[in-house]
Q: What sequence folds into this?
């Protein structure tokens, strides 16, 4: 029974470009990195900045188009250095070493991480979202429901020990503003 449940997770190991490391990185994008390195991704498709904090969004191609959101803020004690604090991705390309990825069910997530607390609920254009957060490890899973068959729609990597919902309190407001790309 357990094998059947985890069978979708038993994929080839992710490449370094695909690997999500809780509390550390999403692919090559590492937390704490100077936000100036985001220029390598090209101009953001959407962004918002105020009070030394910034959100940037890039849309990928495909159906549905993947979305990468990056939250950055000033590094404490430095007036000119802005660093990456939170990364959110909707692509199925990225996955954790244990095989979890966007599309994994809440039941699969709970099998790997135990019963994570429901940290936030918010409404997006695509429907309601439920954020389950492993604060200590620095990984949150944005799901489309609370049933065990609900699916992960976004992976959120954040600083370990800092609750995702508190780190980027304005995230749901920002995500509501992101225009739907046609």
A:
């Amino acid at each position: 029974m357990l094998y059947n449940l985890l069978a979708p997770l038993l994929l080839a190991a992710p490449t370094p470009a695909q690997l999500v490391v809780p509390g550390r990185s999403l692919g090559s994008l590492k937390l704490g990195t100077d936000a100036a390195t985001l220029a390598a991704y090209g101009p953001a498709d959407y962004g918002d900045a105020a009070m030394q904090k910034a959100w940037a969004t890039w849309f990928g191609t495909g159906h549905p188009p993947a979305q990468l959101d990056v939250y950055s803020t000033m590094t404490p004690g430095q007036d000119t250095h802005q660093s990456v604090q939170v990364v959110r991705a909707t692509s199925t390309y990225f996955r954790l070493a244990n095989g979890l990825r966007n599309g994994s069910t809440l039941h699969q997530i709970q099998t790997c991480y135990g019963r994570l607390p429901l940290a936030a609920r918010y409404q997006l254009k695509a429907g309601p979202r439920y954020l389950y957060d492993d604060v200590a490890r620095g990984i949150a899973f944005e799901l489309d429901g609370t049933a065990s068959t609900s699916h992960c729609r976004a992976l959120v990597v954040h600083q370990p020990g800092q609750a995702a919902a508190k780190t980027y309190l304005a995230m749901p407001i920002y995500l509501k503003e992101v225009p739907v790309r046609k």
